[in-house]
Specification:
The chain has 616 residues and is α+β, with helices and mostly antiparallel strands. Helices cover 38% and strands 12% of the residues. The chain is built from 18 helices and 14 strands. It has a 5-stranded antiparallel beta sheet with strand order 8-5-2-1-9. The chain has a 5-stranded mixed beta sheet with strand order 10-11-12-13-14, covered by helices on one side. A two-stranded antiparallel sheet has the order 3-4. A hairpin with a 4-residue loop joins β6 and β7. α9 crosses α11 and α12 packs across α18. The longest helix has 27 residues. It starts with 29 loop residues before the first helix and ends with a helix. This is Ubiquitin-like protease family profile domain-containing protein.
Length: 616
């Protein structure tokens, strides 16, 4: 790190953090951090949301540089302090005054005591890593390869345990106990009901959460984001049936296009006319994208960002004709061959190109998060309609008649409560978690709060909801209750703000709450119970003054899309980050009804997430 202005021999030419800085969190460093970040952005194409991560790495580099200076120049071979002069090679970065201050700090008894404590802790950790120089990344790949697994990663606590298995194959008892505790936790935690922001492994170890718990897992990854597979999810059978039903719907849509083409209508799936939300030309600048390959089957193999700038070069060389520069962020198929091997890094496989730039054919780049509706590949494989749901996993699709018998595919509505729960989990993992919305929004389990349960077990429903509300009495919070009329009936959204005693009623059939008096009675009773437990006094004549707002939300045009409307209501409320819902709905999303593309977006997200969970 560079010296401060006043001490630096070159005056104002360089500004940074001095090596005498012991507290990277010191607010006095904010200005220097801003300048470091500006320099990073000047040299690299990087998103603003990576600022904290990059500056955290800068802090680690500063600490490592101080350690290097101490061990290299201020200690002899026996570890005794040496009063050395300022190394000439660092004279442009460190001023003489700064160097003297740095040395004097390392002579103090306090520094020696802390240094010795840290050295002893590092030499005898509670759960020592036992794989030598093999890092977590290579260990994980070797395990997956050995087991011939189709998965792309291991749960973090499983990897943590494997890293502590000795050459004799034995596992220490304390390590095994931590692993078993993780397994128990992973089976019992419901993501959208969980208020502890720590990961499973951090909880088992009873330590604070931090992103380096298991190293080598990628940018900004915490343990929480790695514990997807073992958490409680709907049954495999339910999700398989849902996936098959949605696939059947896509196949039916494809047949409809064929019939339209035969009748003389324009084919909207032609390669020059992709669906209305898809841009046929790559926009200028940097855009998120999906990466496809056309051989041996047309499929999505990764995700990244396409750089479409005039005069763009790849490693100082011109790009191949018909290709654009792409940064690879995620490899869904790590063994996929790159369309243009990288001569600089010798990378030939997509998995080797993660975090770097490669050239990618323009016609195999899909900008944004929409997928085209027809494959350009002539060979038989997964059609794009199916591929957009199943990615590279070729899950067989049953015949439509069989699907209809088993899943009721004709209805096409996610009446299965497991599907609603799965999408709520998607919202938690993809929206609430990354945007820090857990303190403002929460979900109620529709399996415990549907009309059937309210009529049969009203006391249990009241107890469950009151407990959820009372867990968050110190802050204003909006609770989503996807309400079902029972026995696979109609879905609507009841959003409750118990702090302000307001209930928002969003019904895509545009009915009001008087249609379901039992539901309104129980919700009112719950709010009154919470009010009493919070010891809030109100006049007797106002005891029943609970505000119910019927929101003029988008209206469904059939009798089968209520579930998708309910899911989209929750998503749009989270995107707005508002705990109040206007009576005429949000300006940004106000419309008479949702288009087919808007509903397909929910289906796409749902199916992709089911595949990502790897529970099928």
């Amino acid at each position: 790190m560079m010296a401060s202005n006043e001490d630096h021999p070159h005056g104002d030419e360089t500004v940074g953090v001095p090596i005498t800085c012991d507290n990277w969190r010191n607010k006095q460093l904010n200005e220097a951090k801003d300048k470091i970040w500006s320099e990073i952005k000047r040299c690299f194409d990087i998103e603003e949301n990576r600022r904290d991560h990059c500056l955290k790495l800068a802090g680690k580099l500063l600490r490592g540089f101080r350690t290097f200076l101490s061990t290299t120049f201020l200690r002899d071979t026996e570890g005794t302090f040496v009063d050395a002069e300022l190394p000439s090679k660092y004279a442009s970065l460190i001023s003489p005054k700064e160097w003297e201050t740095f040395k004097s700090k390392r002579k103090t008894q306090e520094f020696k005591s802390v240094s010795e404590t840290n050295r002893q802790r590092a030499s005898s950790p509670a759960y020592p890593y036992r794989k030598g120089r093999v890092g977590y990344g290579r260990l994980e790949q070797s395990i997956l390869t050995k087991e011939n697994s189709s998965e792309t990663s291991l749960p973090a606590h499983v990897l943590w345990k494997e890293a502590r298995v000795g050459k004799d194959g034995k596992i220490k008892e304390d390590v095994q106990q931590i692993f078993e505790k993780c397994e128990t936790l992973s089976q019992s935690i419901v993501p959208y009901e969980d208020t502890d922001c720590r990961s499973i492994l951090s909880r088992a170890l009873d330590v604070p959460e931090y992103s380096g718990r298991v190293r080598g897992k990628g940018f900004g990854i915490t343990q929480k984001s790695l514990n997807i597979k073992k958490q409680k999810t709907p049954s495999n059978k339910e999700l398989q049936q849902t996936l098959e039903a949605l696939k059947a719907e896509v196949l039916e849509l494809r047949k409809e296009r064929e019939r339209d083409r035969a009748a003389g209508f324009k084919d909207t799936s032609d390669k020059d006319s992709i669906n209305c939300n898809f841009q046929p030309t790559i926009p200028e600048g940097i855009s998120p994208c999906h990466l496809y390959l056309a051989r041996p089957t047309y499929r999505m193999v990764g995700k990244g960002k396409v750089h479409n700038n005039l005069g763009e070069l790849l490693h100082t060389k011109p790009l191949p004709t018909g290709s654009l520069k792409v940064s690879v962020d995620i490899a869904l198929e790590k063994d996929a061959l790159l369309p243009h091997p990288d001569d600089v890094s010798d990378a030939t496989l997509l998995g080797d190109a993660i975090g770097s730039f490669v050239a990618w054919p323009t016609d195999l780049i899909i900008v944004g998060y929409e997928t085209p509706t027809k494959s350009k590949a002539k060979d038989k494989g997964i059609a794009r309609e199916i591929e957009s749901v199943a990615s590279q996993k070729e899950i067989p699709v049953a015949k439509k008649t069989e699907i209809s018998k088993r899943t009721g595919a004709k209805k096409k509505n996610p009446s299965n409560v497991g599907v609603i729960n799965t999408y709520m989990r998607y919202l938690y993992d993809k929206l609430m978690g990354p945007r820090g919305l857990e303190q403002r929004f929460s979900f109620l389990n529709p399996m415990k709060t549907n009309l059937t349960e309210m009529i049969r077990k009203p006391d249990e429903v009241r107890t469950y909801v009151v407990e959820r509300f009372m867990a968050d009495t110190d802050r204003e919070k909006l609770f989503f209750l996807p309400f079902n009329t029972g026995d696979g009936g109609h879905w609507l959204l009841v959003a409750i703000n118990p702090f302000k005693e307001i209930v928002y009623y969003l019904d895509s059939l545009h009915k009001d709450w008087t249609t379901y008096p039992a539901m309104k009675t129980i919700v009112d009773t719950i709010i009154q119970t919470v009010r009493a437990q919070r010891k809030i006094q109100v006049p007797k004549r106002k005891a029943n003054n609970i505000t119910w707002n019927r929101v003029e939300c988008p209206r469904q045009r059939n009798n089968i899309d209520c579930g998708y409307y309910t899911l989209r209501f929750m998503k749009e409320t989270l995107l707005m980050d508002r705990t109040d819902i206007p009576s005429d709905y949000f300006d940004e999303y106000r419309c008479a009804y949702y288009s087919k593309d808007q509903l397909d977006e929910i289906k796409e997200e749902l199916c992709q997430f089911i595949i990502e969970l790897q529970v099928l």
